[in-house]
Amino acid sequence: MQNYRQTRFILAAIVMVTLAPFLNKAFHIDDPLFVWMAQQISNHPLDPYGCTVNWASFPEPMWKAMQNPPLCAYYIAAISAMAGWSELALHLGFLIWPVMSVLGTFAVARRFCSVPGTVALAAFFTPVFLVSATNVMCDVMLLALWIWAIECWLAGLESNRWCYFALSAFLITAASLTKYFGIALLPLLATHTLFCGRRKSWRLLFLLFPIAAMAGYELWTKAAYGQGLFSYAVFYSRTVSSGSKSNLFSQLLTGLAFAGGSILLPAFFGRRRTWFLAVLGLAAFYFWLPINPDWQLGNNVVAVKIEGGIFAAIGAGTIAFCLFDLSRERSAQSVFLTIWIVGTFVFAVFLNWSITARTFLPMAPAVAILVVRHVQRSWPIFLAAIVSLFIACADYVQADSARDAASFAARQLRNSSGTLWFQSHWGFQYYMQRFGSTPLNAHDSEITTGDTMIVPANNTAVTAIRPDKILAAQDRSFRVFPYLTTMGRGTGAAFYSSARGPIPWAIDRVPPETYYVVRFR
Question: How far is 137 from 145, CA to CA, in rounded Å?
Answer without folding.
Answer: 14
